[in-house]
Amino acid sequence: MEKRVGRRGFLVSGAVVGAGALVTACTSNEPAAAPSSAAPQATTAGTDNDQPGEKVVIGFSAPAADHGWIAAIAKNAEAQAKQYSDVEFKPVEPTNDINQQISAVESLIQAKVNALVILPNDGEQLNQVARRATDAGIPVINLDRVFPDKLSYRTWIGGDNYGMGVAAGHFIGDRLKQAGVSNPVILEIQGIATLPLTQDRSKGFADALKTYGFSVTAQQDAKFTVESGTQVASNLLQAHKKIDAIWNHDDDQGIGVLAAIKEAGRDEFFMVGGAGSANAMRDIQADSGVLKATVTYSPTMASSAIKLARLIAQGKGMSDLVEQQVPQSITLASETITKDNAAQYLPLGFES
Fold first, then answer.
1. Under DSSP, is residue 143 helix (H, G, I), strand (E, B) or coil?
2. 194 CB-contact burial (10 Å; exposed 0-12 / middle 13-18 / buried 19+)
């Protein structure tokens, strides 16, 4: 798999709060659409900003839905757009080919959409086409994987990768401390090791563990795929006859990790996932296996990106903020989901 990951989280800042139904500051009293049974999409309702206004066309471009999180990104964006009678949603064909995504975004620029929501396959490689959009007067809402040039986007919204690691590290560190474990064997299964987002997650994890006097025993990346998750987990299980805890960065690849653990018949440790998939939450609720928590990086960020695009295109700000304009950057919080709060977050989960 190429550079095409980025994942999960809930809006906080002064603007948006993620919980149960993800209630935001810039919405109306219109009821949210009923979620589908297969993969609920987070849509929102709240204040007068959601009352019909100027008609706007919002273009949308994202990678191909080759795993659960990316599929949920597209579904959330479309579902949120449908909440507004004044929004025309104009998605282009999803693709994992950089050149095809550039061409697709160029077609949206030529169509003179009022705003663009872009989750790039690679922020650096799509930076120039995003800049062309902003130079053409089209505000770009940069979703998740950031463009390096701030002149290429009006607002960035994405997850807190460092915060994911911190949340996982504190859950594992606190649990091991309370159990009186000394010199624990802690394994870390990354996504793609070369990506900055993965490096941020690993740094947050190491920094949090350090506060308990712990460190990572072994670390290996699993490419964000089920198959690699199975292979990497199998290798780590064979190499370590005694394990105390595992942090797996991604619930999609976690399907393979858990399959390997089941095949090996190992249960002397506990595991924390990453992303907040619905199937992971159900496993955590059941409390019948090694998975005890997951830290969020929710695709609901796509719903919020559509809301931000609409506000910016209509010249509105966020009603709970004093400032007149939508913020330039919104970093999402990483929540820790356990059996105690899984039911609250399950409606926002995505199917892996």
1. strand
2. exposed
CATH, residue 187: 3.40.50.2300
The verdict on residue 28 lying in a domain is no
Query: 17-27: per-residue pLDDT in tens?
Result: 333 333 333 33
Whether 205 and 306 map to the same domain: the answer is no
Range of the domain at 144: 48-160+299-348
Domain assignment present for 121: yes
Bridge partners, residue 245, by sequence: 186, 270
Q: Is 261 domain-assigned?
A: yes
Q: Tokens 């712990």 map to which residue?
A: 214
Is residue 102 within 8 Å of residue 122, measured between CB atoms?
no
Residue ranges, the chain, pLDDT below 70:
1-47
- DSSP, collapsed to helix, strand or coil, labels residue 122 as coil
On whether both 156 and 188 belong to a single domain, the answer is no
In this predicted structure, what is the pLDDT of residue 66? Answer: 83
Categorise residue 192: left if φ over 0, alpha if ψ from -120 to 50, beta otherwise. beta
The pLDDT assigned to 46 comes to: 52
**Distance of alpha carbon 145 from alpha carbon 297, whole angstroms:** 13
What contacts 278, CB < 8 A, 6 or more positions away?
Answer: 39, 40, 346, 349, 350, 351, 352
Alpha helices in the chain (DSSP H): 68-81, 98-110, 127-135, 161-178, 196-210, 226-239, 251-264, 278-286, 301-313, 342-345
What global pTM score does this model have?
A: 0.82
Residues 291 and 165 in one domain: yes
Let me know whether 153 and 165 are in one domain. no
End-to-end CA distance of the chain, in Å?
A: 17
**Does residue 287 share a domain with residue 165?**
yes
Residue bearing tokens 């999409």? 41
